[in-house]
């Protein structure tokens, strides 16, 4: 029971941190103000890691449109998550103690686990953003949150809108994207 609680707490904490770092990178990519919500929350949650990374990354990387410090923060958090998970379940210790030749395999497994966590958080975060956008389009299409979610989801929905016609005045691109994101999560599992 204690292990299940630790795994839940570890998953929740790192999911929130990784999602915040990815959302920070995405908000900077689409040029959304970071001083309004959720930008200020995301910055407060990730500044402790992103700011030091900005100081050590090469200047030419910092001049691109991509917020590489936030992306790198998400990657590092995924790696730390995988390492803690491996230590919690003894993957690293058991592999090195029992089968010294398998230690590199255990490390590759943990790297794959970190990548899986990064992709899972990305897909689930996008799913929540698109779902919120779709629901608000029916409930409060003029609200500031709807406008923010529209700016965050537009780069993903615009390519789909070229191929998916509006049906009876209803834009189905968000529904199609939700289905595609859900399929992606199923394939990941």
Provide the structure class.
mainly alpha
What does the radius of gyration come to?
A: 19 Å
Series of secondary-structure elements, N-terminal to C-terminal: HHHHHHHH
Q: Which spans of ≥5 residues are poorly predicted at pLDDT below 50? A: none
The percent of residues in helical segments reads over 70%
User: What does the overall shape look like?
Assistant: globular
Oligomer: single chain
**Sheet of most strands:** none
Portion of residues in beta strands equals under 5%
- Strand tally is 0
Instruction: Return the domain count.
Output: 1
Topology, pairings included?
Elements: H1 2-29, H2 39-56, H3 59-62, H4 68-88, H5 91-98, H6 103-139, H7 144-161, H8 173-188
Helix pairs in contact: 1-2, 1-4, 1-6, 2-4, 4-6, 5-6, 6-7, 6-8, 7-8
If you had to describe this structure to a student in words, what would you say it looks like?
The protein is an all-alpha fold and 189 residues long. The chain has one domain (2-188). It has helices spanning 2-29, 39-56, 59-62, 68-88, 91-98, 103-139, 144-161, 173-188. Helix 1 runs antiparallel to helix 4 (68-88) and helix 7 (144-161) crosses helix 8.
Quick recap of the structure?
The protein has 189 residues and is an all-alpha fold. The chain has one domain (2-188).
Keywords:
189 residues, mainly alpha, 8 helices, 79% helix
